[in-house]
Amino acid sequence: MLSFKHFLYEQKKSEAPRGVIFDGNKVFVGKEHMEPLVLSDELVEKIKEIGDQYGYWYEGSGGDVLTTTGFNNKSKYEGSWDHEFEKTVKGYPPEYLFTIFANTKVNHQRKNLLRPSMSIFDSIMKAQKKIAYFEDKKFDDSTLKKFLSMCSEKDVDFLKLSELPATKENVNMFINKGESLSWPKNWKEYPNKAGKLAKKVEDARNTFILNRKTGVYFAGSGHLIELLRLDDSLKMIGGEKAEK
Question: Is pLDDT of 191 > 60?
């Protein structure tokens, strides 16, 4: 019989702090971006049973793969579920520029937009391959103007701010404002226009993977919370540290 101390240890080991959702021959695995994946050995094996048969998919460009312990061989993945989703989107809706203000620690917008000799607006246009959502599409000036206007508030005019030189100070200010409006502490309520635009895209992305038939899908743990909201028949294992 396990001692109580050993029992607690076993319980701790069995956690999936960022959450796991099993749905038939499909699994969603929550992860904190650029942080090691924490899963019990038992869950890893159950996930591999499905993934080895139906395939693995990473989020975005796959920057998290190397930190996804137990699943860190990119050659074993089918590819990016985001890239599959991209194929279903027509044109370049302006809300997809939400990535300018998203996952800044991973996507390095502050570094990629640093061009003091030009405006922030022009720098965004030049850097779009590094910061844009779509891999095989380009947005034009009018799309960027529309996005910046759509996510502006009474006291924050992103279109006007984008006219400033892309110095380190100005870029930091621009990104910080956009990030704070997109993802405030009460981000789940989406109180600001920038957040509402991001939510429109996130809902489309989540609906896409929710409707997939098979496979293992790694994603930021916030996605799992939204999947539960979209389909209340789903149950999550763990999730103590999922972004709620």
Answer: yes
Asked if residue 174 and residue 121 are part of one domain, the reply reads: yes
Question: Does position 2 have pLDDT exceeding 60, yes or no?
Answer: no
Enter the pTM of the model.
Answer: 0.82
Q: CA-CA distance, 3 to 108, in Å (whole number)? A: 48
Determine what percent of the chain is predicted with pLDDT higher than 70: 94
Q: Which of 207, 203, 222, 224 is nearest to 93 (CA)?
A: 203
Looking at the chain, the number of H-run helices and the number of E-run strands are 12, 8
**Neighbour-count burial for 108-141, b at 16+ CB within 10 Å, e otherwise:** ebeebbbbeeebbbbbbbebbeebbbbeeeebee
Q: Are 231 and 210 in contact (CB under 8 A)?
A: yes
Q: Is residue 167 part of a domain?
A: yes
Does some domain include residue 98? yes
59 touches 107 (CB < 8 A):
no
Domain around 49? 14-87+214-237
Neighbouring-strand partners of residue 218? 29
